[in-house]
Structures are given as structure tokens and as C-alpha cells.
Amino acid sequence: MEFKNLHADIDFSCINKGVTENTNDVFTRKMKSSALKDEDFLSYWDLGRRPPVLEKREICRYKGVSINKYENDADIRRLYNRLFSDASKFKRKKIRPKYYCKLRFKKGAGMVWLNGNIKPYHFTFFKSDAFSLSLVGEVQVEEF
Amino acid sequence: MTLLAFLWSVKFKLKNFNMFDFAKDKKMSSDIAQIHSNYKVLLYDEEPILYVGKNKYGGYVLGSSIDENFRKNIEWHFHTLITPETYRDFINKKITYLEILKNSNDLFVLEKSFDNSQVEIYPINLNEIPEDYLPTPDSFCPDPYLYIEKHFSYNVQFDGQDAADNRLSPKAIKNTIENYVKLFQAPVSILGDYFGKLTIKPFVSAFSHGSFVINFDIKLDREEQQIKLYELYTNLEEDISVLSEKYYRYCFNELPDEYLDVISNETAPNFDTVLNEFKEFTERTLSQVPESLQKRFTDETLKIPTVISDLTEFIGEGFESIALNGMHPISKIDTSYKDKYEKIVEIVENKTTEVDRSPQRYIAHIYKLNVETRRGSANVKKEQDPESMYRPRIFIMGDSPLENTKYTRSLYENRFIEILGIAKRRKGNIESIDVTFESD
User: Fold this and answer.
1) Cβ partners under 8 Å of residue B333, min gap 6
2) pLDDT of A60-108, one tens digit each?
3) pLDDT grade for B231, boundaries at 50, 70 and 90
4) How large is the average pLDDT for residues B281-289?
């Protein structure tokens, strides 16, 4: 699995110890509409945004997309609602998400980086060079 | 930028996001409000919402996302300069983000392009900010350890007096290192037996140039070495470092107010919160909460005030305060802590110990003595077994000078002497002796 696109404009690797391929677990991703589209996997870096301080951890975070490990609907809804509730205390113009999907990555889609130790665990997903929606399987969209 | 990303951003450019108007004639050229290093995200939801860092001059900057304009590729942030004390109070949930902004004399709006190529900073007054852009009254800091890089290192910074001239007495340095190592060991002692006799190996790194700072690096170690630590639990060291820092934070900031409740088995909510974090950790890693955990946690925690009281021993003699910093600032102790902890230790001793009814004679070797505070430590022969020792703290009463007395001779000449004093015992062990001063 190659990550040349991911590393094209940086001189270090985001694929370090602890970043692994995971085709077993179900993950969730918040979505902008009721149908999963390519744009739902655009990272902040893809959109031209850069972290305020160019530290490696933050650059890698911006180059991936946020996902959570799915265990059950109640936990994931509780998490997303709590995240929105917490975030909107500080950023009053935060937009409430409307949809999320459950999915499972297929072989070659990319790798996941665990960087949040509360349940349901938060991961950052790094797209491989071969990534496309055809490598995202078992998609099931849920509405909040 | 790929074609897809371009098309997506065009879609957002069709929407018109409005930021509140603010005066742009006061644009600032100084970069004092910009984060230069030590950037830490305190709340993350698809993007950094709340964060902290240091500016170029070493001062803390606390910031939050306000809004974005996808048509112009611009984003806005509140930034405010904060002291280490305010940072600690915010992390400890004593003040809200709204209160920090309200009390700030250094509040700014940062306007920057998405790619950081253009950054403008505008000082702003709170009354210029519409109410629906202000943080809410319950804007307490979320868990500050969720999104940051974990480490098991600390620095201890001395301030004031000789420390400001980059020097300290060897006794003060030795006392500080010994007692902080005891503190760092405490949470690992609580968990140690459940993970193959886990312990710590502390290292003190070279003092930083230009300031009086002692750096500690803590490594976890297992006595049962058949399997390496990281093979058992991938994130064990990271998780224990977060748990430990939350524990130290509790010990310095909340335990003093709850100590009597803890020792009396009364309700102590902050104690329970930290204990529950330990329970959740063992449940996550061991799939069970060991029955002995609560007792181990309580027993270790009850020892902490003595350690912190000992840490304060040299405050006022060469330095005025000691700050402990880890992943976030943890504590700052000064002379007020000294008085507070001495009182706690005294109250606890009186509550839980048996006290001699009248002064008794003991055979003691004083191995530590501060002639100014008249406090120290001694090896005291056990009555039934003179080959074994108690190791109580001692306090020599009165105000007669201690130089050239049997007490300082015991210290400097390593000899046993006879002392007269009232001992306080807990579970048969002499923990302290108030010594009646006797001239030669």
C-alpha cells in the first residue's frame, strides 16, 4: 500500500508505529448529506487548510479524516451529540451534523491512527494512493 | 489541490458565511498573540475548536475557532494571553473560557487565510463581540489530555530569590528531587502489582541553560520481564502518563480540601472522580477492577500530604515557589502551601495516631536537620529491637540556637544521641517526635 500522495509535500511520514490497516472493525464518519460521496473523505489538507502551527502531529491530523470505532448506535450517537454540545460552547457557529455512516474499509483503502482514548475511540484515517469509495464497504447511513 | 477538492470548495463558496463586524483600524503588527510552539488541542471536532500554545516570548496563548468564510478561504479565531495560573485554573475547571475572555486585557481576533499565508491580528474589547459569538457560561475546559501528544516527563521550575540568579543550595535540590520522585512513584505503586510489579525508573536530565529548572523523564519498568511492556498493552505508557498527571493534579489542587473527608471515609467527590479513572483504566486494560485497587489508592494517597509537606521544606530559603509542569501546568507551591500542608499533617497525626502522654527518652541519629525551621528526620532505635529503626520526622521545640548542640553533632558526626520527646505513632510505628530542647 502506497502513500506517496499523503507525503507529497512533507519530509516526514505520518505512517508510523501504531498506524495500521484495519479491515475488521466497523467505523463511523460524519457526513454532509444522506449519501456517502468522495467529498466526505476530503481532508482539511486536501481543502487547502493548514494547522496554525506546522507541527508533525497536527500536519498528520489535517492530512487524515476523522473516524470513530463503532460498537453500538447508542454510544456513537452519544459521542457525536456530546462533541457537538462541547464544541458549540466554544464555537457558537458550529454546524450540527445531520448524518453519519457506518462503514468497513476494504484491503488497500488506507490505514488508521488511534489518537483518542475515550470510547468510541477516535481514529484518523489516511487514504492510500489507491483510495476510492469502491474500497469502502458495508456502508449504512444513519440520520441524527 | 485536486479537482475534487476545488469543486467542493467552489460549492461552499456559493454560501455566504458572515463573521461579526469588528474594528479593523487597530490591526497589530506584533506577533505576541500568535502561537509559535507547544501547540496543544484541548477540543477537537473535525477541526481544532479550542487550543493552547506559547507565543515567541514564552507566554501562553489560549485560542478558539470562531467561524470560517469558504468563499474567501478565511477563518477567524479568538486568542487571549493567559498566565500559567489562569491556564492551571482553566485545566482544573475553576474558571470558564467565557470568564477568561471577560477578564482578559489582551483579547484578539486572529484573521487568517486557510493556508496560513496571511495572518492579521486585531485587538478587540469584549463589548465588541456579539453575544451569540461569545462562549457559553458553562464553557469549562474539556478533558485536556484527549487530543495531545502524551509523554511521561516533567519539569520543576524554581522562582524567586537565589533561583532567579540560577542557583540553589544542594540541600534544596536534593530534597526536591527525592520528594518529587516519591510523588511520581505513587500512581504506579497503586497499579504496579496488576501489571507484573510495575515500577518507575526516573531520570533527571541536565539543568536547562539560563533558568533553574530540573527535568524529569519517567520510564516504566516491569520486574517480571518475560514479556515486554509494550507487547502487552500498546498504549500502556501513554495511558499511565495521563492517569498519573491527573493524579498529581488532584493531589496538589484538591486533596488538601478533601483530606479529612478521605481519612474519615466521608464523601470526597474529587477523590472519587480520580479513583474512578483508575478503575476505568484497569477495566479497560485488565478487563476487571481488582478488589484491592480502592484500598491501594486510598493508602497511597493518604501518604501524599507528607511528601508535599517535605517538598515545601526549603521554600523561602533561596526560592519562593516551585512549579511542576507536565503535559500541562500542574501546580505551583509557595509558602502558603507550606503552612497548609503542615497543618494537614499535624491534624492527621493528631487524629490517627497514639501520642506519648509525657516526654520519653529515645536513642536517635539525626540524619536530616534544617536549623532554621528546626525540622528534620532521624533514625530512632526500636525499644524491643535496637537493631531495627523507626524513621520519624522530628521537630525540635523552643527557639534556642541549634548550632553546636548535640543535635547538630549527631547530624555532622553520624552519632546516636539521647533525645527527650513526645512521639506520635500510627499502627505502632513512630511517625514523628516533638523533641524537647536540651542544652549540653
Assistant:
1) B252, B308, B311, B312, B315, B321, B322
2) 999 999 999 999 999 999 989 988 999 999 999 998 889 999 999 999 9
3) low
4) 89
Q: Name beta bridge partners: A112.
A: A20, A125
Q: Are B282 and B147 in contact (CB under 8 A)?
A: no
Residues 6+ apart with CB under 8 A from B239: A117, B233, B281, B284, B285
Of B35, B64, B114, the CB nearest to A91: B64
Tell me which chain B residue has its CA closest to the CA of residue A49. B114
pLDDT score, position A118: 62
Single-letter residue type at B34: Q
Strands (E), A70-109: 99-105
What pTM was estimated for this model as a whole? 0.79
> Inter-chain contact A53–B37, Cβ cutoff 8 Å?
yes
Nearest to A117 among B2, B41, B146 (CB): B146
Confidence of residue B40 (pLDDT cuts 50, 70, 90): very high
Q: Which residues, 6+ apart, have CB-to-CB distance to A8 below 8 Å?
A: none
ipTM of the complex: 0.91
Convert the pLDDT of each residue in A4-31 to its tens digit. Answer: 999 999 999 999 878 999 999 999 999 8
Closest chain A C-alpha to B105 CA, distance in angstroms? 19
* Residue B208 pLDDT level (bands cut at 50, 70, 90): low
Question: Is B116–A44 a contact, with Cβ atoms under 8 angstroms apart?
Answer: no
Closest CA to B122 of B207, B37, B19: B19
Nearest to B9 among A38, A47, A50 (CB): A47
A95 touches chain B (CB under 8 A): no
- B404-425: buried (b, 16+ CB within 10 Å) or exposed (e) per residue? ebbbeebbeeeebbebebbbbb
> Beta strands B429-435 and B393-396: pairing type?
parallel
CA distance B244 to chain A (A): 15
User: ∠ at Cα B144 (B308, B195), nearest 5°?
Assistant: 65
Residue B211 has pLDDT above 70, yes or no: no
Contact check, Cβ <8 Å, B4/A39: yes
Are B49 and A90 an interchain contact pair (Cβ–Cβ within 8 Å)? yes
Give the residue, B384 or B223, on which the prediction is more confident: B384
* CA distances for B19 relative to A75, B23, B59, B73, B130, angstroms: 34, 12, 28, 13, 10
Among B265, B328, B299, CA closest to B38 = B328
Q: How far from B381 is each of A27, B47, B363, B365, CA to CA, in Å? A: 65, 63, 6, 9
Size of interface A-B (CB pairs under 8 A): 105
Dihedral angle computed from the Cα positions of residues B358, B361, B362 and B364, in that order, rounded to the nearest 10 degrees: 110
Give the integer Cα–Cα distance in Å for B251 and B245. Answer: 10
Question: What's the pLDDT band for B12 if we cut at 50, 70, 90?
Answer: very low
Helix axes B269-286, B170-191, angle to 10 degrees: 60
C-alpha cell at B13: 463558496
Average pLDDT, chain B: 87
